Structures are given as C-alpha cells and as structure tokens.
Amino acid sequence: MKAVRWHNRRDVRVEDIPEPSPGPGEVKVKVGWCGICGSDIHEFVEGPVFIPTEPHPLTGTMAPQTLGHEFGGTIVEVGPGVSTSRVGERVSVDPALSCGKCYWCKHGFPMHCDSLAYFGLIGDGGFAEYAVVKGSNCHPIPAQMTFEMAAFGEPVAVAVRAIRQGGVKEGDTVAVLGAGTIGQLIAQVARAYGAVQVFVSEIAPQRREKALELGATAVFDPVEVDLVEEIRARTDGLGVDVAFECVGGTQVGMLPNTAVQVVDVLRKRGTAVIVGVFDEPTAFHFAGVLFLEKNITGSWTFAPEEFQTGLDLMASGKVKVEPLITGRIGLEEFVEKGLLELELNKDENLKILVSPGRS
Ligand SMILES: [Zn+2]
Ligand SMILES: [Zn+2]
To answer: Nearest Cα to 240, choosing from 211, 208, 269, 218?
Structure first.
C-alpha cells in the first residue's frame, strides 16, 4: 500500500510498504481523511522532534515511520481480543497511547505518561491507505459526521482541553492570540462553553475574517492596534477572564511578545493558557502575576474523554471544521501540495486534508 514515510529532516517519501495487519487488541482502519498538523511541518523542517530515532519504550517503533495523527476512516479488520469495535464501523482515531502503569497514568493524566506515544509521530499513522491502531483508540462517529470532520478529532480535542485548563465557563470573556487551526477551534469551543465575548488577535487578514465568521465577537490586527487597550475598552477596563497563547511566542518585527501579551490582556486573577509550542525561552516579568494574582498554565494534548467531547461538539454543529479546510490532496501530492504548501504559504492556509482515495 501507499504510505507517507518520514525518513529524516527534509526527507519525507511516498512509498509502497506492506499492508499492516492487526495484532491482539488492534484494528485495521481504511483511512478516509487525515489532516496535516503543524507538528508534521516541524518534523519535516527541523525534526526529529517527537519521532524516535531509537526504539520507543512503549511501541518499540522508530524512524522511518508513517506520519499522520489526525484521521478517521472505516474499520476493515478486527484483531483478536477486541470486543468494542466491529468491521464496517466508522471511527475517528484518538492517536494518543499511554502505558497505564506509570504515576501519571494511574493518577488520571495519561497525557503526561512517562512513555507517551502518538500514532503518526511515535508509531505508524494515517497518511496511508490503511492504519493499524488500538481498538480502544477508535471512537465511533455518528452517521451525519463525515470523515473530513473525523480528521479533526485530535485538534478539536486539543482545543477542548485548553478550554478546560483555562476553566472557561458561562459568561466569561476570552482572548485568543493566534488564529491558526488550534486558535480557531479554541475560539469556537469557548463559545460552546458559554463565553460571551471572544476576542481574536491575528496578523493574517484571511484568518481574522475566518474567526469572525466562526463566532469571534471581535478580531484585531496586533500590528495595527494596541491589543491590551482594545480589550480593556471592551471589558469595562478589566481585561479578559481567560486568554490563550496559540502562537508559540514568535516575535514578528516590533510586535509585543505574545507570551507577555497573553498575561497582559487578563483581568486580575485571570488565567493564561499556553497552547502554542515555544522553541525558545522568552523574557517575562512576574511582578504582574504576583500583584494581580494571575494564573499561567499549559495545556498538553488531551484525555480520552476530551476527545469524545470534541466529537460531540462537532456532531452537534457547535464546532464547525469544514470552513477551516483550505486544501484536499492525495497521498502522492503530500510533500509538494501539503508540507511545502503549508511551510511556504502559511497565512493562506489552515488545514490541508489528505486522502488515499484521492489521486
Ligand atoms: Zn495535530
Ligand atoms: Zn503511563
């Protein structure tokens, strides 16, 4: 079968590999659609980041391996000992795999598992005709949910956890810094959790428009306006209850650092959630955190129940993902129209989906 394999930095190949078959506890999924994630670009441009170059403690796998951790499809074969899945079932795949034995697994935080694995980054993933995954990682999807929507299971789950980490509740005001796919989804999930005002700060005009179309109550270009002032003016001078950093702290020109801004836009006792992946350290003055009793937390992947919550939000129409799709390509076009397109034309794109059924 055809599969997209990561061999090394700048060396991702579309290859023929043997079709996998499910072992105990596993199922074989015929992939419908699989989304390209920012982390796939990271692995391509500066990897290996998460991809193991020696056997991973949980999966025993290492490069070269099949990319793709955002996918849905149909179960076509069920391995021994799987009672929860059946052939023909349409599913969205939760890519996270934890050991179930370490301190964090035992305390209800599988995303902090000492040997966390992730299909498509650690273990073969969904940029292939077929993927073999744990049956327990497959969430059945309702009939009205397309495989395109199923491919958003993972990013929506990331947004759900971020909202929970921030404690967003009915009546809250929220700011989202950076409107890539994750920022767009966080803005929508915030509305679904009852946020009455959602401010989105984003440099790219197309992304600002998209955010407005999908439920943001106001959008700002941080190059043009003083974001902190604009937000204070709209929140009785208080600032927002919860703010999300979805950029990774990259400074553009003389713009204020988003890591600083995400705390500055908060009201006293507000919560900043770090969702963007930081490559470098950043300077930060903690005095404001002290005097104003602000909270700063991270949000890392998600728990299985948050994955299901995300699917439910999509199924109910509260979170719309179709407008975030900016490209649909086949496996053969993966490098040129997928990775390179996202690397070189970042602002024009949000999510590019890949289907083995498309050539
Ligand atoms: Zn992802
Ligand atoms: Zn564990």
So the answer is: 269
